Amino acid sequence: MPDDPRTVVEAIASPGTKIVTLTITEGGYNIDRVNGQFDVDHPDVVADLRNPELPRTVFGIVVEALRLRRQRGISPFSILSCDNIQENGNVARSAFGAFGGALEQSFGQWISDEVAFPNSMVDRITPVTTDADRAEVAQRYDIEDRWPVVCEPFTQWVIEDRFTLGRPPWEEAGAQLVADVEPYELMKLRLLNASHQALCYFGYLAGYRYAHEAMADPLIKQFVADYMFNEAVPTLPPVPGVNLVAYCFELLERFANPEIRDTLARLCTDSSDRIPKWLLPVIRHQLTTGGEITRAAAVVASWARYAEGVDEQGKVIDIVDQCAGELRTVAAKNRMDSTAFIANRRLFGNLVDERRFVKEYVRALESLHQQGAVETLRSLIGD
Fold first, then answer.
1. What's the distance, Cα to Cα, between the start and end of the chain in Å?
2. What pLDDT sits at residue 86?
3. What integer best gives the mean pLDDT of the chain?
């Protein structure tokens, strides 16, 4: 953020700006976990609402730019979210509309009615930038880049074709412009993102630190594949132009790519945002239809075990999550009360009342405590 955010506001408010893209992570939309509404009481939001001309949040900056354009008679730009959230455009509309409405009710309604918030799905594994990456860029290209973006070869960008002031010809660069993004985003969230969760906690507990190392373990690879084919795929509608079986096999190859060096710690980050959005919908769908939930329930159990904060080698786990303190406190009760972790209705809703889920979850958690990650995986694959 520059010292004077007004320079950013004016740049966005200028007539030449037609699209504002966002990547602010799953938890960055300031949505209250309990009521599902934008949290207008967050201290940074309160500060922006009191002094909208000097905003410090993305909501304050973008909404102030929209206010200036409205005041100057300039059509609003489109806001394109690129985050791993189902219906990310709708989530952005709710957040920015609520912020605008907190300033002035009619302004919030204008944002909701007049600003385009196309949904999108972006698929490319991008690990955390390291000092080694910076050094390699400097050596290879003679460029000092503080934050080079390292990523895998694969890329997919699916965008709802709905923009206020037009758009670049992104399809010429390989993007897919479609009328409905939902089938693609469900595919990515429940296969790629949820499978990363299936991989990361078991892998970390077993002593691995990189995704490709964990995927080289036949037990972990088979567990992830079993989750994909037996539990995630049955929840998905047909995806235009995509063979889901081939997509799953491609994911297994992507996860195993040693050149990406994606850390399990990154995949374990912000679990309280990720698991409810990516994995729990699979469990709920399968419970409703009578489908398999053994592996998905075991993933939740592996998260609960990880949240205890110590791996199987006795090393402390640095839990990076906005709910880290709460998670550690509840997970400390796992051995005394096997359902303590999933009794958190703010995260898990009524799943603690679902006997079939509880049975599978408790069985996996007890096995993790008694047998460890490797033997738990062995038993799950046997099942």
1. 51
2. 85
3. 95
